[in-house]
# Entry
Amino acid sequence: MSELKTSEYANIYIGGDEGANAVMTSMEAAEYLKMHVKTVCRLAKEGKIPAKKVGSEWRFLKNVLDKWLAEEMG
# Structure
């Protein structure tokens, strides 16, 4: 097994498609959605945006955010 550098952990993926199943932090999700990070966290806490809390941090799946955004705009 090859050794991974810390920087290689920056993008975590679930499954085979790297882009669609990317796991994002609240800051990454906010940047992706063009929203303020506090707004993203508030919406996640209120259950208005799909997210999971891992410890004290929110995590977002890119493909789930894409689907949510399409439904909100549709």
